[in-house]
Amino acid sequence: MDEPKIDLNARNAFAARHGAGALKLEGGTGPITRSVNMGDWLEVYKADMTYRIQSPESIDPHETNPNAPWVVTPAAQVGSSNPTVARVLLQSEEIIDAAMLVERIDKDAVMLVLHGLKEAILTCEAISSKVCDRIDSVIAAVLDDGIARDTMAVV
To answer: Which pLDDT value is given to residue 145?
Structure first.
């Protein structure tokens, strides 16, 4: 399907989407500690919260809505103080920025891969936490009530 043609001369430069914006990050503790450009969005961190910020251009690249807003979405209940976020994404970005590499790399592509890894590890951590909680509840039940015995004879 062909993408709509945009007449740049007809574009309304005074549309709300092209004006200054203000954002408020609801929740989390303390100030913003870091932000990472992920191409189509900006990932912003407080110590205990992650937000995704998208510009009107990334949400509506064909400018079909002259009043397209900036969008702030809470992305995770963990932030820059989480070891996975800090080590996999934030420290990796610092290393990439500081490294004197012989060959040029596509930082945007590398950051997207690292972001995917961070997300996968956070998912694994959440699952692991639920499994550990369930194991703890089974152990508590065994300690409180003992182990029920099976009365069937083993042949």
So the answer is: 80
**Higher-scoring residue by pLDDT: 13, 83:** 83
Q: Where are the domains of the chain?
A: 16-145
The span from the CA of 1 to the CA of 77, in Å, is 39
- Read off the amino acid at residue 18: H
Q: What is the pLDDT of residue 7?
A: 53
pLDDT digits (tens, 9 = 90+) for 16-56: 777 777 788 999 999 999 999 999 999 999 999 999 999 99
Q: What is the mean pLDDT of residues 142-155?
A: 68
Q: Which residue has the tokens 């979405």?
A: 73
Residue 41: name the closest of 73, 17, 19, 14 by CA: 73
Is residue 28 within 8 A of residue 79, CB to CB? The reply is yes
Helix H, strand E, coil C: the string for the chain is CCCCCCCCCCCCCCCHHHCCCCCCCCCCCCCCCEEEECCCCEEEEECCEEEEEECHHHHCCCCCCCCCCCEEEEEECCCCCCHHHHHHHHHHHHHHHHCCCCCCCCHHHHHHHHHHHHHHHHHHHHHHHHHHHHHHHHHHHHHHHCCCCCCCCCC
